[in-house]
Protein backbone atom coordinates (compact mmCIF):
# COMPACT_ATOMS: atom_id res chain seq x y z
CA UNK A 1 0.00 0.00 0.00
CA UNK A 2 1.29 3.51 -0.79
CA UNK A 3 2.28 5.46 2.31
CA UNK A 4 1.52 9.06 3.21
CA UNK A 5 4.36 10.86 4.94
CA UNK A 6 5.50 14.42 5.61
CA UNK A 7 8.02 16.01 3.25
CA UNK A 8 9.44 19.40 2.25
CA UNK A 9 8.63 20.67 -1.24
CA UNK A 10 9.36 23.74 -3.36
CA UNK A 11 6.28 24.64 -5.40
CA UNK A 12 7.65 27.56 -7.43
CA UNK A 13 10.78 29.60 -8.00
CA UNK A 14 11.70 31.77 -5.04
CA UNK A 15 8.70 30.72 -2.93
CA UNK A 16 9.35 29.54 0.63
CA UNK A 17 9.45 25.78 0.96
CA UNK A 18 6.61 24.03 2.75
CA UNK A 19 5.97 20.84 4.68
CA UNK A 20 3.17 18.82 3.16
CA UNK A 21 1.94 15.26 2.71
CA UNK A 22 3.56 13.18 0.00
CA UNK A 23 2.61 9.76 -1.27
CA UNK A 24 5.36 7.13 -1.44
CA UNK A 25 4.49 4.05 -3.52
CA UNK A 26 5.53 0.51 -2.69
CA UNK A 27 8.89 -0.32 -4.25
CA UNK A 28 8.82 -1.77 -7.74
CA UNK A 29 11.50 -3.90 -9.39
CA UNK A 30 14.95 -2.57 -8.53
CA UNK A 31 13.59 -0.03 -6.03
CA UNK A 32 13.71 0.47 -2.27
CA UNK A 33 11.78 2.50 0.28
CA UNK A 34 14.03 4.05 2.92
CA UNK A 35 12.95 5.46 6.27
CA UNK A 36 15.04 8.63 6.45
CA UNK A 37 16.76 9.30 9.76
CA UNK A 38 18.76 12.42 8.89
CA UNK A 39 19.32 14.69 5.87
CA UNK A 40 21.74 17.58 5.43
CA UNK A 41 20.68 20.97 4.05
CA UNK A 42 22.82 21.52 0.95
CA UNK A 43 23.24 24.50 -1.42
CA UNK A 44 21.97 22.26 -4.21
CA UNK A 45 18.55 22.12 -2.53
CA UNK A 46 18.49 25.91 -2.55
CA UNK A 47 19.46 25.87 -6.24
CA UNK A 48 16.44 23.65 -6.88
CA UNK A 49 14.15 26.04 -5.03
CA UNK A 50 15.51 28.96 -7.05
CA UNK A 51 15.13 27.19 -10.40
CA UNK A 52 18.88 26.90 -10.88
CA UNK A 53 18.73 23.18 -11.72
CA UNK A 54 15.52 22.90 -13.76
CA UNK A 55 11.95 24.19 -13.82
CA UNK A 56 10.29 20.83 -13.13
CA UNK A 57 8.34 22.02 -10.08
CA UNK A 58 7.22 20.93 -7.57
CA UNK A 59 10.47 19.55 -6.17
CA UNK A 60 10.76 17.19 -3.25
CA UNK A 61 13.94 18.55 -1.70
CA UNK A 62 16.75 16.85 0.21
CA UNK A 63 19.49 14.46 -0.90
CA UNK A 64 22.24 14.18 1.78
CA UNK A 65 20.60 11.40 3.72
CA UNK A 66 21.05 8.30 5.82
CA UNK A 67 18.36 5.93 6.98
CA UNK A 68 17.11 2.35 7.18
CA UNK A 69 15.81 0.29 4.28
CA UNK A 70 12.14 -0.45 4.97
CA UNK A 71 11.23 -2.54 1.93
CA UNK A 72 12.66 -3.57 -1.42
CA UNK A 73 11.19 -4.49 -4.77
CA UNK A 74 11.59 -7.50 -6.98
CA UNK A 75 15.14 -8.43 -7.96
CA UNK A 76 16.92 -6.36 -5.30
CA UNK A 77 19.84 -8.27 -3.80
CA UNK A 78 22.29 -5.55 -2.74
CA UNK A 79 20.30 -4.35 0.29
CA UNK A 80 17.51 -5.74 2.44
CA UNK A 81 15.06 -4.40 5.02
CA UNK A 82 16.86 -3.29 8.17
CA UNK A 83 20.08 -2.23 6.46
CA UNK A 84 21.50 1.16 7.49
CA UNK A 85 22.35 3.03 4.30
CA UNK A 86 23.66 6.33 2.97
CA UNK A 87 21.78 7.51 -0.12
CA UNK A 88 23.67 8.55 -3.23
CA UNK A 89 22.91 9.99 -6.66
CA UNK A 90 25.45 7.81 -8.49
CA UNK A 91 23.59 4.51 -8.90
CA UNK A 92 25.81 3.13 -11.64
CA UNK A 93 24.35 1.18 -14.55
CA UNK A 94 27.20 -1.29 -15.02
CA UNK A 95 26.80 -1.30 -18.80
CA UNK A 96 27.65 2.12 -20.25
CA UNK A 97 30.98 2.85 -21.92
CA UNK A 98 32.48 4.20 -18.68
CA UNK A 99 31.39 1.17 -16.67
CA UNK A 100 32.63 -1.22 -19.34
CA UNK A 101 36.03 0.51 -19.24
CA UNK A 102 36.29 -0.14 -15.52
CA UNK A 103 35.54 3.44 -14.49
CA UNK A 104 32.05 3.20 -12.96
CA UNK A 105 32.65 6.42 -10.99
CA UNK A 106 32.13 8.17 -14.35
CA UNK A 107 28.97 6.20 -15.23
CA UNK A 108 27.07 8.02 -17.99
CA UNK A 109 23.73 6.34 -17.32
CA UNK A 110 23.06 6.44 -13.58
CA UNK A 111 19.52 5.60 -12.64
CA UNK A 112 16.80 6.53 -10.16
CA UNK A 113 13.48 5.06 -9.07
CA UNK A 114 11.10 4.60 -11.99
CA UNK A 115 7.90 5.32 -10.06
CA UNK A 116 7.12 8.89 -9.06
CA UNK A 117 6.33 10.11 -5.58
CA UNK A 118 3.34 12.46 -5.63
CA UNK A 119 1.26 14.94 -3.74
CA UNK A 120 -2.09 13.71 -2.47
CA UNK A 121 -3.83 15.09 -5.56
CA UNK A 122 -1.62 12.98 -7.81
CA UNK A 123 0.80 15.75 -8.86
CA UNK A 124 4.16 14.14 -9.59
CA UNK A 125 7.14 15.39 -7.61
CA UNK A 126 10.67 15.86 -8.94
CA UNK A 127 13.01 14.50 -6.25
CA UNK A 128 16.22 16.48 -5.76
CA UNK A 129 19.08 14.57 -7.41
CA UNK A 130 16.72 11.63 -7.78
CA UNK A 131 16.48 11.21 -4.00
CA UNK A 132 14.03 13.62 -2.30
CA UNK A 133 14.93 12.94 1.33
CA UNK A 134 13.52 15.91 3.24
CA UNK A 135 10.81 13.39 3.99
CA UNK A 136 10.04 10.72 6.54
CA UNK A 137 10.40 8.10 3.80
CA UNK A 138 11.57 8.16 0.21
CA UNK A 139 11.59 5.88 -2.83
CA UNK A 140 14.92 5.37 -4.61
CA UNK A 141 16.66 2.94 -6.92
CA UNK A 142 18.25 0.20 -4.83
CA UNK A 143 21.61 1.16 -6.32
CA UNK A 144 21.25 4.53 -4.60
CA UNK A 145 21.49 2.79 -1.21
CA UNK A 146 25.00 2.14 0.09
CA UNK A 147 25.14 -0.08 3.15
CA UNK A 148 27.45 1.20 5.91
CA UNK A 149 28.20 0.39 9.55
CA UNK A 150 25.08 1.15 11.63
CA UNK A 151 27.26 2.36 14.51
CA UNK A 152 27.66 5.66 12.65
CA UNK A 153 25.55 8.67 13.57
CA UNK A 154 22.89 9.19 10.86
CA UNK A 155 23.42 12.97 10.99
CA UNK A 156 27.13 12.54 10.22
CA UNK A 157 26.85 9.61 7.81
CA UNK A 158 24.25 11.27 5.59
CA UNK A 159 26.62 14.11 4.73
CA UNK A 160 28.66 11.69 2.63
CA UNK A 161 25.69 11.70 0.27
CA UNK A 162 26.84 14.97 -1.33
CA UNK A 163 28.94 17.83 0.04
CA UNK A 164 31.45 16.07 2.28
CA UNK A 165 32.05 13.35 -0.31
CA UNK A 166 32.45 16.00 -3.01
CA UNK A 167 35.15 17.79 -1.02
CA UNK A 168 37.07 14.76 0.21
CA UNK A 169 36.89 13.20 -3.25
CA UNK A 170 38.06 16.40 -4.96
CA UNK A 171 41.29 16.19 -2.97
CA UNK A 172 41.83 12.44 -2.83
CA UNK A 173 40.18 11.01 -5.96
CA UNK A 174 40.37 13.86 -8.48
CA UNK A 175 43.40 15.74 -7.20
CA UNK A 176 45.33 12.62 -6.24
CA UNK A 177 46.79 14.29 -3.15
CA UNK A 178 49.58 12.15 -1.71
CA UNK A 179 51.93 12.04 1.24
CA UNK A 180 54.06 15.15 1.52
CA UNK A 181 52.12 17.18 -1.05
CA UNK A 182 51.32 20.86 -0.63
CA UNK A 183 47.63 21.65 -1.07
CA UNK A 184 45.67 24.88 -1.21
CA UNK A 185 41.87 25.01 -0.87
CA UNK A 186 40.10 28.16 -2.03
CA UNK A 187 36.69 28.53 -0.38
CA UNK A 188 36.21 26.83 2.98
CA UNK A 189 32.50 26.22 3.40
CA UNK A 190 31.28 22.65 3.70
CA UNK A 191 32.85 21.33 0.50
CA UNK A 192 36.13 23.21 0.91
CA UNK A 193 36.49 22.15 4.54
CA UNK A 194 35.89 18.57 3.42
CA UNK A 195 38.67 18.99 0.84
CA UNK A 196 40.93 20.11 3.69
CA UNK A 197 39.94 17.00 5.65
CA UNK A 198 40.63 14.83 2.60
CA UNK A 199 44.07 16.35 2.08
CA UNK A 200 44.85 15.74 5.73
CA UNK A 201 43.74 12.10 5.45
CA UNK A 202 45.97 11.66 2.40
CA UNK A 203 49.03 12.87 4.30
CA UNK A 204 49.59 16.30 2.75
CA UNK A 205 52.38 18.11 4.54
CA UNK A 206 51.10 21.64 3.98
CA UNK A 207 47.41 22.50 3.68
CA UNK A 208 46.63 26.14 2.97
CA UNK A 209 43.03 27.28 3.47
CA UNK A 210 41.85 30.45 1.71
CA UNK A 211 38.63 32.31 2.40
CA UNK A 212 37.22 35.78 2.99
CA UNK A 213 35.70 34.91 6.37
CA UNK A 214 37.61 34.13 9.57
CA UNK A 215 34.81 31.82 10.71
CA UNK A 216 35.38 29.58 7.69
CA UNK A 217 39.14 29.66 8.17
CA UNK A 218 38.56 28.49 11.74
CA UNK A 219 36.50 25.59 10.37
CA UNK A 220 39.32 24.71 7.98
CA UNK A 221 41.85 24.70 10.82
CA UNK A 222 39.67 22.25 12.74
CA UNK A 223 39.80 19.82 9.80
CA UNK A 224 43.56 19.97 9.36
CA UNK A 225 44.59 23.21 7.63
CA UNK A 226 48.18 24.03 8.58
CA UNK A 227 48.04 27.60 7.26
CA UNK A 228 45.24 30.06 6.49
CA UNK A 229 44.95 33.05 4.18
CA UNK A 230 42.29 35.71 4.55
CA UNK A 231 41.78 36.87 0.95
CA UNK A 232 40.41 40.21 2.17
CA UNK A 233 43.81 40.99 3.64
CA UNK A 234 46.31 39.21 1.36
CA UNK A 235 46.60 38.34 -2.30
CA UNK A 236 45.92 34.58 -2.18
CA UNK A 237 48.23 33.72 -5.08
CA UNK A 238 51.16 35.55 -3.53
CA UNK A 239 50.40 34.10 -0.10
CA UNK A 240 50.21 30.51 -1.40
CA UNK A 241 53.47 30.96 -3.30
CA UNK A 242 55.17 32.41 -0.23
CA UNK A 243 54.03 29.42 1.84
CA UNK A 244 55.34 26.94 -0.74
CA UNK A 245 58.88 28.21 -1.26
CA UNK A 246 57.84 30.45 -4.13
CA UNK A 247 56.64 27.54 -6.28
CA UNK A 248 52.91 27.23 -5.69
CA UNK A 249 50.94 24.26 -4.37
CA UNK A 250 51.06 20.76 -5.84
CA UNK A 251 47.25 20.65 -5.82
CA UNK A 252 44.83 23.58 -5.63
CA UNK A 253 41.15 22.82 -4.99
CA UNK A 254 38.76 25.58 -6.08
CA UNK A 255 35.60 25.15 -4.01
CA UNK A 256 33.86 28.44 -4.89
CA UNK A 257 32.96 28.11 -8.56
CA UNK A 258 33.77 31.61 -9.80
CA UNK A 259 36.07 32.77 -12.63
CA UNK A 260 38.07 34.99 -10.27
CA UNK A 261 38.83 32.22 -7.81
CA UNK A 262 39.53 29.72 -10.57
CA UNK A 263 42.12 32.11 -12.00
CA UNK A 264 43.67 32.38 -8.55
CA UNK A 265 43.81 28.59 -8.35
CA UNK A 266 45.41 28.40 -11.79
CA UNK A 267 48.26 30.75 -10.89
CA UNK A 268 48.65 29.46 -7.33
CA UNK A 269 49.70 25.96 -8.41
CA UNK A 270 53.22 24.77 -9.01
CA UNK A 271 54.47 24.14 -12.55
CA UNK A 272 52.93 20.81 -13.56
CA UNK A 273 50.60 21.11 -10.56
CA UNK A 274 46.91 20.23 -10.55
CA UNK A 275 43.86 22.47 -10.32
CA UNK A 276 40.60 20.83 -9.26
CA UNK A 277 37.31 22.67 -9.79
CA UNK A 278 34.65 21.39 -7.40
CA UNK A 279 32.81 24.69 -6.81
CA UNK A 280 29.68 24.86 -8.96
CA UNK A 281 29.56 27.79 -11.44
CA UNK A 282 26.40 29.31 -12.90
CA UNK A 283 25.58 29.04 -16.62
CA UNK A 284 26.52 32.61 -17.53
CA UNK A 285 30.04 32.50 -16.09
CA UNK A 286 32.97 32.64 -18.51
CA UNK A 287 36.70 32.12 -18.00
CA UNK A 288 39.52 33.85 -19.86
CA UNK A 289 43.13 32.70 -19.55
CA UNK A 290 46.10 33.28 -21.85
CA UNK A 291 46.40 30.06 -23.82
CA UNK A 292 50.18 30.34 -23.66
CA UNK A 293 49.97 30.17 -19.85
CA UNK A 294 47.82 27.05 -20.06
CA UNK A 295 50.38 25.48 -22.38
CA UNK A 296 53.44 26.68 -20.53
CA UNK A 297 52.48 25.55 -17.03
CA UNK A 298 51.78 21.91 -17.85
CA UNK A 299 50.08 19.86 -15.17
CA UNK A 300 46.37 19.21 -15.13
CA UNK A 301 43.13 21.18 -14.99
CA UNK A 302 40.38 18.92 -13.70
CA UNK A 303 36.73 19.15 -12.77
CA UNK A 304 35.44 17.02 -9.90
CA UNK A 305 31.85 15.81 -10.08
CA UNK A 306 30.72 14.32 -6.77
CA UNK A 307 34.38 13.92 -5.88
CA UNK A 308 34.77 11.28 -8.62
CA UNK A 309 33.43 8.91 -5.99
CA UNK A 310 32.20 5.35 -6.24
CA UNK A 311 29.74 5.12 -3.35
CA UNK A 312 30.08 1.36 -2.90
CA UNK A 313 33.84 1.81 -2.47
CA UNK A 314 34.12 5.19 -0.75
CA UNK A 315 31.20 5.43 1.68
CA UNK A 316 32.01 2.33 3.78
CA UNK A 317 35.71 3.28 3.86
CA UNK A 318 35.00 6.83 5.05
CA UNK A 319 32.51 5.59 7.66
CA UNK A 320 35.19 3.23 8.97
CA UNK A 321 37.64 6.14 9.23
CA UNK A 322 34.95 8.13 11.07
CA UNK A 323 34.36 5.31 13.56
CA UNK A 324 38.13 5.02 14.09
CA UNK A 325 38.25 8.72 15.01
CA UNK A 326 40.33 9.62 11.94
CA UNK A 327 37.64 11.60 10.08
CA UNK A 328 35.56 14.10 12.06
CA UNK A 329 32.23 13.90 10.26
CA UNK A 330 30.50 15.16 13.42
CA UNK A 331 32.44 18.39 13.01
CA UNK A 332 30.46 19.21 9.86
CA UNK A 333 27.13 19.13 11.75
CA UNK A 334 26.49 22.68 12.92
CA UNK A 335 22.93 22.08 14.11
CA UNK A 336 20.10 19.55 14.05
CA UNK A 337 16.66 20.81 13.00
CA UNK A 338 13.18 19.60 12.10
CA UNK A 339 11.42 19.43 8.72
CA UNK A 340 9.71 22.73 9.41
CA UNK A 341 13.03 24.54 9.87
CA UNK A 342 14.45 24.06 6.35
CA UNK A 343 13.59 27.55 5.06
CA UNK A 344 15.33 29.20 8.02
CA UNK A 345 18.30 26.86 7.53
CA UNK A 346 18.62 28.08 3.93
CA UNK A 347 18.97 31.64 5.25
CA UNK A 348 21.66 30.65 7.77
CA UNK A 349 23.50 28.76 5.06
CA UNK A 350 23.45 31.78 2.71
CA UNK A 351 24.85 33.96 5.50
CA UNK A 352 27.71 31.50 6.03
CA UNK A 353 26.73 30.80 9.62
CA UNK A 354 26.74 27.00 9.40
CA UNK A 355 28.73 24.23 7.79
CA UNK A 356 25.67 21.99 7.67
CA UNK A 357 22.22 22.10 9.19
CA UNK A 358 20.89 18.54 9.43
CA UNK A 359 17.23 17.60 9.50
CA UNK A 360 16.60 14.80 12.00
CA UNK A 361 13.55 12.59 11.59
UniProtKB/TrEMBL annotation:
<comment type="similarity">
    <text>Belongs to the zinc-containing alcohol dehydrogenase family.</text>
</comment>
<dbReference type="GO" id="GO:0051903">
    <property type="term" value="F:S-(hydroxymethyl)glutathione dehydrogenase [NAD(P)+] activity"/>
</dbReference>
<dbReference type="Pfam" id="PF00107">
    <property type="entry name" value="ADH_zinc_N"/>
</dbReference>
<keyword id="KW-0479">Metal-binding</keyword>
<dbReference type="GO" id="GO:0046294">
    <property type="term" value="P:formaldehyde catabolic process"/>
</dbReference>
<dbReference type="InterPro" id="IPR017816">
    <property type="entry name" value="MycoS_dep_FDH"/>
</dbReference>
<dbReference type="GO" id="GO:0005829">
    <property type="term" value="C:cytosol"/>
</dbReference>
<protein>
    <submittedName>
        <fullName>S-(Hydroxymethyl)mycothiol dehydrogenase</fullName>
        <ecNumber>1.1.1.306</ecNumber>
    </submittedName>
</protein>
<dbReference type="InterPro" id="IPR011032">
    <property type="entry name" value="GroES-like_sf"/>
</dbReference>
<dbReference type="InterPro" id="IPR013154">
    <property type="entry name" value="ADH-like_N"/>
</dbReference>
<dbReference type="GO" id="GO:0050607">
    <property type="term" value="F:mycothiol-dependent formaldehyde dehydrogenase activity"/>
</dbReference>
<feature type="domain" description="Enoyl reductase (ER)">
    <location>
        <begin position="14"/>
        <end position="359"/>
    </location>
</feature>
<dbReference type="InterPro" id="IPR020843">
    <property type="entry name" value="ER"/>
</dbReference>
<keyword id="KW-0520">NAD</keyword>
<dbReference type="InterPro" id="IPR036291">
    <property type="entry name" value="NAD(P)-bd_dom_sf"/>
</dbReference>
<dbReference type="InterPro" id="IPR013149">
    <property type="entry name" value="ADH-like_C"/>
</dbReference>
<dbReference type="InterPro" id="IPR002328">
    <property type="entry name" value="ADH_Zn_CS"/>
</dbReference>
<dbReference type="Pfam" id="PF08240">
    <property type="entry name" value="ADH_N"/>
</dbReference>
<dbReference type="GO" id="GO:0008270">
    <property type="term" value="F:zinc ion binding"/>
</dbReference>
<keyword id="KW-0862">Zinc</keyword>
<keyword id="KW-0560">Oxidoreductase</keyword>
Amino acid sequence: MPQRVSGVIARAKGEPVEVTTIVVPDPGPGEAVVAVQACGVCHTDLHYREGGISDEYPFLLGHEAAGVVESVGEGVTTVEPGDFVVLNWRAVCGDCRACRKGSPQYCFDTHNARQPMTLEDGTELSPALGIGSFAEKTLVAAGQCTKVDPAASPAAAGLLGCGVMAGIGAAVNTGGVGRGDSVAVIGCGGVGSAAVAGASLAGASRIIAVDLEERKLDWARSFGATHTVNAREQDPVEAIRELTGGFGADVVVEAVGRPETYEQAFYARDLAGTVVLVGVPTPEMRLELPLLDVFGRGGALKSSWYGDCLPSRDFPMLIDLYLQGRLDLDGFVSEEIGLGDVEAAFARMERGEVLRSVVRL
